[in-house]
Amino acid sequence: MSNGEVERIKSLLENMQDKSHTAKNCENCSIYAQWIDKSGSQDLPQTGERIEYECIYLSNISNDTIKIIHVLRPVAKRFGRQKREFVSIAQVTEYLNQLTFDAAFNTLVSLVKRREYSCAQIRTKLSEYGYTSDVIEESIQRAKRVSLLNDMRFAECFIKSKLRQGWGLNRIEQSLKTNGIMMSDIPGYPDAFITPESEAERALKLLQRKGVPEKNPHQKLARYLVNKGFDYSVAINATIERIKQEECLSE
């Protein structure tokens, strides 16, 4: 590194608050910044999120050189809190790798404290935070070992929750597949959660909360149930029964 480059970095360090910054104001970080487009996900904000990196400046007093290492912001914060001396860049890199694993796992823990997640959902979340696949997989395996993540527990909670919300089995199954859960892996599914009779009863109860349209009632009510995830035959039978009930009331 030239003397001019060293002076430029030293000047940058002097002007930076807390000696940290993001890709927005550092040309050294710009090639590392990633843009995550969340517009295609229904359960995430319809915005983008910048994965922010910070520079760690390692100075060698003996030859007046500075090496720049780019790390994720949570890792840089952890590194900045440590009062340690390193004898080589390799030692620093090893330590940063450990801090990265710790930061990823802490992010995972903060997520599962709020609600149940599937492994596939956590994989997507950590990727959005900028962690690499090897860090993500190690974090997931660690979480599974201590029962922070359990796909079958997630599936059971998800199914019961969506049944209470009036979802049909088709919609529930499709959502579980999207979240990395195979129905064949769920013990006792679907009989352990619902029977054909109770599915029909749920469909009819949903229609009983709605008024019967004057125009095309069969088509509109059946389409409503199909959109909720009910099987077409269940939707048709429930629609016929609901219209019969309405006709009896009007007589």
Describe the model.
There is one protein chain. The chain is mainly alpha-helical and 251 residues long. The protein has 3 domains: 3-145, no CATH class; 151-194; 197-251, no CATH class. Helices cover 56% and strands 10% of the residues. The chain is built from 11 helices and 4 strands, in the order H-H-E-E-E-E-H-H-H-H-H-H-H-H-H. It has helices spanning 3-15, 27-30, 73-81, 89-112, 119-128, 133-145, 151-164, 169-178, 196-208, 217-227, 232-250, and strands at residues 34-37, 48-51, 53-60, 65-72. The strands form 2 sheets. The protein has a two-stranded antiparallel ribbon with strand order 1-2. Strands 3-4 form a two-stranded antiparallel ribbon. Helix 3 crosses helix 4 (89-112) and helix 9 (196-208) crosses helix 11. The longest helix has 24 residues, at 89-112. The model is unreliable at 15-25 and 28-49 (pLDDT under 50).
SSE arrangement:
Layout: H1 3-15, H2 27-30, E1 34-37, E2 48-51, E3 53-60, E4 65-72, H3 73-81, H4 89-112, H5 119-128, H6 133-145, H7 151-164, H8 169-178, H9 196-208, H10 217-227, H11 232-250
Antiparallel strand pairs: 1-2, 3-4
Helix pairs in contact: 3-4, 4-6, 5-6, 9-11, 10-11
Summarize the structure.
The chain has 251 residues and is mostly helical.
* Separate helix tally: 11
Structural class: mainly alpha
- In the sheet with the most strands, the strands line up as 1-2
Helix content, binned percent = 55-70%
Number of strands: 4
Oligomer: single chain
Based on CA atoms alone, the radius of gyration comes out at: 27 Å
Order of helices and strands: HHEEEEHHHHHHHHH
Proportion of strand residues: 5-15%
The shape, in one word, is elongated
Low-confidence stretches: 15-25, 28-49
The overall average pLDDT, rounded, is 79
Characterize the largest beta sheet: strand count, sense, and whether it forms a barrel.
Answer: 2 strands, antiparallel
Question: How many individual domains?
Answer: 3
